Amino acid sequence: MQFNRVGEFLGVARITGPHHNLLQLRLGEGIAPVPVLECLPAIGKCTHTPLNTDKLVAAVIEGISSANKEFGTNHTATHIRYVRNDTPPEEVYGFLAFSIVRHLESNGF
Fold first, then answer.
1. In this structure, what DSSP letter does residue 60 have?
2. Is 91 helix (H, G, I), strand (E, B) or coil?
3. Among residues 23, 52, 57, 106, which one has the fewest Cβ atoms lying within 10 Å of its Cβ?
4. What's the whole-model pTM score?
5. Which residues, in sequence order, are bridge partners of residue 17?
6. CB of 14 within 8 A of CB of 92?
7. Which DSSP category does 46 fall into?
8. Do 59 and 93 meet the contact criterion of CB atoms below 8 Å apart?
9. How many whole angstroms separate alpha carbon 60 and alpha carbon 91?
10. What average pLDDT does range 12-26 have in this prediction?
11. Domain span at residue 30?
């Protein structure tokens, strides 16, 4: 996985064989708002079944919640970015969200 910061967004990219996913989050703290979801333009020419955005958002929220429990933090997602032609399953975005919080808490960005 590759972690990066793009302005106020914390991001991670994961490529495993034919699967590729990018997640960028703008984090806040406290009461969780409904996150703004932004679909970034497709990268490359591959096409896949479109991601289910409701499942993607739910997975991100669950991943952050799990990370908060593990690290004693209170992060929330205010904005979520993903790439239009990334691959399912949506549950991987929960793992990516957890990984962003873990990286932030252990290494910073």
1. H
2. coil
3. 106
4. 0.93
5. none
6. yes
7. -
8. yes
9. 8
10. 91
11. 2-106
Q: Tell me the backbone φ, ψ of residue 67, rounded to 5 degrees.
A: -65, -40
Model confidence pLDDT, tens digit, residues 79-107:
999 999 999 999 999 999 999 999 999 98
Nearest 5 degrees, angle CA 66-CA 68-CA 74?
Answer: 145
The pair phi, psi for residue 70, each rounded to 5°, is -70, -40
Structure tokens at 85: 């032609």
For the chain, how many structural domains are there in total?
1
> Do the beta carbons of residue 82 and residue 40 sit within 8 Å?
yes
The residue behind tokens 């990286």 is 103
Question: What is the tens place of the pLDDT at every residue in 30-66?
Answer: 887 789 999 999 888 888 889 999 999 999 999 999 9
Walk across the sheet containing 9-16 and list its strands: 2-6, 9-16, 19-29, 75-83, 36-40
What is the pLDDT, as a whole number, of residue 69? Answer: 97
CA angle at 32 for the pair 26 and 33, rounded to the nearest 5° = 75
